[in-house]
Amino acid sequence: MATGLQRLQSYRLPLILWLMAACLYVGRGYLLTVNLTDSLPGHVFLIEKDRTPALGDLVAFRWERDWPYPRGSIFVKFLRGGPGSRVEVSERNYYLDGQFVGSAKERARSGELLEKGPTGLLPLGRYYVAADHPDSLDSRYRLTGWIRHDQIIGRARRLW
Predict the structure, then answer these.
(1) Are 35 and 42 in contact, with CB atoms under 8 Å apart?
(2) I want to staple 73 with a disulfide (CB 3.0 to 4.6 A). Which of 18, 63, 147, 155 is the partner?
(3) Residues 151 and 62: beta-carbon distance below 8 Å
């Protein structure tokens, strides 16, 4: 009589093939990403690819610069404003449609100067992203600026 372990071993190849197929299927519509900073509550996020986030949702997007993170890194922030939203700054305090959304620091933790981000009316296909943490690298800064629609991967959900 075969033991449970022996039966499991006999199903090893079909089980492996099934798991690989499931990963490929799920992988087409979802990604997992890890937040390595304190800028958001949570460390592991599930990204629903090609799912358009609504204002207030977490949005995953690709980083466009080569510094301070590698180009193509996945960022997760809150989607705070979209086309038609007005971004204003008073000194280093940012307002979106008249509501305070955060203050821009003058220098990064590493000491580099941080240029303020763009202001004005968000055009079609541009979005304002932010997090509540004072060290969040978001649309308050020129480095991030307003993200383009084609940078968006999808809606993100905190898992842990």
Answers:
(1) yes
(2) 63
(3) yes
Segment 16-65, tens digit of pLDDT: 666 556 656 666 788 888 887 888 888 888 899 988 899 999 999 999 99
3-class secondary structure, 24: helix
Q: How far apart are the first and last CA of the chain?
A: 43
- The pLDDT of residue 80: 97
- Structure-token pair, residue 4: 């449970």
**Is the CB of residue 105 less than 8 Å from the CB of residue 132?**
no
Where are the chain's structural domains? 30-158
> Which residues are CB-contacts of 33 (< 8 A; sequence separation ≥ 6)?
44, 45, 47, 60, 74, 76, 156
Average pLDDT of 146-150? Answer: 97
